[in-house]
Amino acid sequence: MTTLLELYEKLKPKLGEEEARSLLEYIESAVERRAATKEDLMRTETGLREEIQRVETELREDMQRVETGLREEIHRVETELREEIQRVETELRGEIQRVETELREEIQRVRADLIRWTFAFWVSTIAILTGIMFSMFRAFLS
């Protein structure tokens, strides 16, 4: 690899002493700028890493808040659903009890009607049979 001095010696006869020195100073400053650019890149990389870490931390905190909010909302909805189910169950039990009471009353009415009709049937049957028997006794005795 050619050193800076060797390059100067090769350029001096073709460009002249002053021009060769200027060219090499320009190249050296360009190399220094490139080195500074590497430092800038390192600083930028460090800054980006810190920013990524900060954003990641914020995202984790946001996700935690959202998760907590969702859990609270789920608990609230679950509680509301349980209350609604309890209310509907209570209403259904009341309605079932009411229908059961109405059915019992209707059964009692039908039963009472059935007993009356049965009594009327047997009384009229006995009256008819008694009438037939008296008619037969009269017919035999006469």
Summarize the structure.
The protein has 142 residues and is mainly alpha-helical. It has helices at residues 4-15, 17-141. It is rod-shaped and about 180 Å long.
Structurally, the number of domains stands at 1
Count the E strands.
Answer: 0
The major sheet is characterized as: none
Parts with pLDDT < 50 across at least 5 consecutive residues: none
Distance from N terminus to C terminus (CA atoms, Å) equals: 165 Å
The proportion of strand residues reads under 5%
Helix content: over 70%
Mean pLDDT: 89
Number of H/I helices? 2
Order of helices and strands: HH
- Class inferred from helices and paired strands: mainly alpha
Shape by Cα distribution: rod-shaped
Radius of gyration: 57 Å
Please provide a written account of the structure.
The protein has 142 residues and is mostly helical. It has one domain (4-105). The chain has 2 helices and no strands. The longest helix is centred in the middle third of the chain and has 125 residues, at 17-141. The chain is rod-shaped and about 180 Å long. The model has no long low-confidence stretch (mean pLDDT 89).
Attribute tags:
mainly alpha
Helices and strands in order:
Elements: H1 4-15, H2 17-141
Helix pairs in contact: 1-2
